[in-house]
Write a structure and sequence with these properties.
With 298 residues, this protein is an all-alpha fold. The protein contains 12 helices and no strands. It starts with a helix and ends with a helix.
């Protein structure tokens, strides 16, 4: 029952994110737009490249969706609403999101096309840049909570959310989350106008529908992770816990969609340079500051 509720919540969130994305990109909000687009994709014939890697080509879109669902499984919507309350839940989120890279590399390699392959390897370079910027902020979050259990991470923020307690970690994790979801300015794997779709260029019909649904669910999952780790998850007055979780998740998703739209797309070399030369030192500084605050303040 809990799993069914969580999946329905993710699908509802993905639909709302699709509406928001249409509004951000095209300047008009259409409640029925995503439904019409999805129906149109499902109604089209699904073409496949002649020289494709059959296994990778078929597995990549579902694997992207599964990785997002696995990461969401350890994120609580309310005190009693979580699919898997693992002892290492915070690290499990990072482990599940690693398969996003696997899925995009498969999607880039399988069609045997130049644009798709460039997009896939761009995401690999992007992963090298942001991967530590997911693990290291989570480390600081776990230090304060003295636990990797995601429900305990939420409860540790009853007095003060981590976004205020450790703002450096919050910003780094948010940027890394945008890179995971390959949102602008980190949309190197798809690069509309440059790679003609990149990793999704060779997908059509229901395969493309699954790929885009997976990306929307991924955005919701990452936004939920930001809410759990830094905004206190379900904590809040007056409204029921699930309402706070939903509101915070949608607010973060909207921020992720809006934040990079007015920034030029970053080259992969710049993403790597800033990730290693700026991001990792800041993440280490964040861990040090949080450690000192724990020792001094308690």
């Amino acid at each position: 029952m809990t799993a069914a509720i969580s999946i329905l919540a993710l699908l509802a969130g993905a639909y709302l994110v699709a509406v928001l994305e249409g509004w951000v990109s095209m300047g008009r909000m259409s409640i029925t737009g995503p439904l019409a687009s999805g129906a149109a994709m499902l109604g089209r014939e699904s073409f496949v490249p002649k020289r494709r890697d059959r296994v990778f080509f078929e597995v990549a879109p579902p694997l992207l969706l599964v990785s997002a669902l696995l990461a969401a499984a350890v994120l609580p919507l309310s005190p009693g609403l979580i699919v898997a309350d693992l002892a290492t839940g915070a690290l499990f989120v990072n482990a599940a999101l690693a398969y996003v890279m696997v899925a995009l590399l498969m999607a880039g390699w399988a069609p045997n096309g130049a644009y798709a392959m460039v997009g896939g390897f761009r995401f690999l370079g992007q992963l090298v840049a942001y991967s530590m910027l997911i693990v290291m902020p989570i480390t600081a979050v776990a230090m304060r909570a003295e636990s990797l259990v995601t429900t305990e991470v939420v409860e540790s923020q009853a007095a003060l959310p981590n976004a205020i307690y450790q703002p450096i970690g919050f910003v780094l994790f948010l940027l890394a989350g945008m890179a995971v979801c390959f949102l602008p300015p980190f949309d190197l794997p798809t690069a509309p106008g440059e790679l003609a779709g990149g990793v999704e260029a060779e997908y059509t019909g229901w395969r493309l529908a699954v790929f885009r649904l997976a990306r929307l669910v991924l955005v919701v999952t990452v936004a939920a992770a930001v809410s759990v780790f830094y905004l206190g998850g379900w904590l809040g007055p007056v409204f029921p816990p699930w309402a706070w979780s939903a509101a915070k998740t949608l607010a973060v998703a909207a921020l992720m969609l809006l934040a990079g739209r007015h920034v030029p797309r970053l080259r992969e070399t710049h993403v790597l340079e800033w990730g290693w030369k700026v991001g990792i030192p800041l993440a280490l500084l964040n861990i040090f500051v949080v450690g000192v605050m724990i020792l001094v303040v308690g």
